[in-house]
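Write out this protein's structure.
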Amino acid sequence: MDSNLYRVTLGQARQADAFTAGEKAAIQARNALSDELPGWALAFGGGRHDATALLQGFRTVLGDIPIVGGCGVGLITVEAATLTGYECGLLLFPAALNPAAIALVDNLGQDERIAGQQLGEALRESAFPNATVLLFYDSIQSSPPPMLHVGSQLVDGVYEGLGEDHPILVGAGMLADMELTNSYIFDGRESRKHAAVAVVLPPTLTSHNTIMHGCYPASDFLEITRIDGARVLELNNRPALTVAAERLDIPREQLAMLHPPHFSLTLGEKHGDPFTPFREDQYVNRLVIAADLSDNALILFEADFQIGSRVQLMAIDPQRMIESAHQQTQALLSTLDGQQLLFSLYIDCAGRSMAFSGLEDDETAPVREQVGVRCPLLGFYSGVEIAPLLGRSRPLDWTGVLAVFTTTAP
C-alpha cells in the first residue's frame, strides 16, 4: 500500500484575522501532503472568526475542494487545548480518500426530524455496511435566549430515512461560544445556518470509537411528570426545581442562581436494567443549562425527554472525567493490535473544558498524549456530541467522543 496515497495531514493556526488563520493552516496541511492532490478537508474554526473569511483563507491555498465542518468553542491538537476563539484547524485528505457522498439539508428550523429523514434518504444509496458517516449540524436556532435545534430529532430522522442500513454516525452539534449565541456548519461549499451535513467516508477508512464520561448519580430515580420542550417542569408530580434542591440539599433560590461553570448538573437516563450497579456507559445525560425560579423548571440543553422518562440527577466529578478519558483511550488503543492510525477526531463537550468546568487539570491530556503522538489529531469543543452508544448512535451531553481511523487497501 502506498503510504503517501493514504496520508492525512493536519494544519492549524491561531490568528485574530480569519483569512490569515485559514490561509496559514491550509498552507501547513498542503505542504505536508507533498505531491498528492488534495481531495477534501475537514475544518473547524473558533467562534470569533468570520466564517466566510476563514473559508476564503482555506480556499486561497486549497482551491475548490469540498470543505466540511464548522465552528467550535475551541480547538484540540497534540500540543494543547485552547479556547481563544481565534483558532482554526483542518485535516486534509488526498483524492484517494474522497468521500463516498456528501449530503446536506438546510431546513432544521422547520422540523429537525423531517430534515433528518431527508438527509437519511439522501445517504441511503451511498451508505454501505459498517460505513462511518460524519454528521455535523448547527446547534443554535436563535439567541438570545438560546433556542436549540434538537439533535435527537435529527438523528432519529436520519435513521428513519436510512431504512435498514445503520451506518456508524459520529459527529457534533456545532457551537461558537460558551454563551450559546451562535453556530454554523461548513457544508462543503460555504457556511450555513439551520443546516446539517453528512459525509460518508470511503470503504477504505474504518473508525474505532469510544466515549469519555464523568458523571455519577446524585439521586434516586425520578419520573418526569410534566415537561415542555427542554423545560422540565415536574419530577414525581412536584416542581422540578424544588425536587432537585431537596435531593442536592441546596436551597431552591440558591440552586436557581447557579449555572455552569459555577455549578454543573445533568439529568441522566439509564438504559437497560435500572437495578444493575452503576456503569457510566449505560447513561444518556442531558446538561442542565439553567433553572427558572418563576415556574420551578430545570432547563436542559436538549429537548428529548418525555413525560414518563425516568431520570436521575447526575453530579459531575472532575477526577472521574480525567480517569475516564485515560481509561477509555487506553482501552480503545489496546484493541487495535498495533494497527497504524491514519488520523483521529476528538469531539469534546465545551462544558468539559478547563475554562468552563473550573478543572485544574486538562481532561484532553490523556487523548493528546496517547493518540496525538501516533497520528494527526484534530479536536474541537462542541455543543452536542454524536456517537454509538447502547446499540445505535445518539446525541450526547458532557462527553468526549474519540474516533481513530485506520485504513485498508482496496
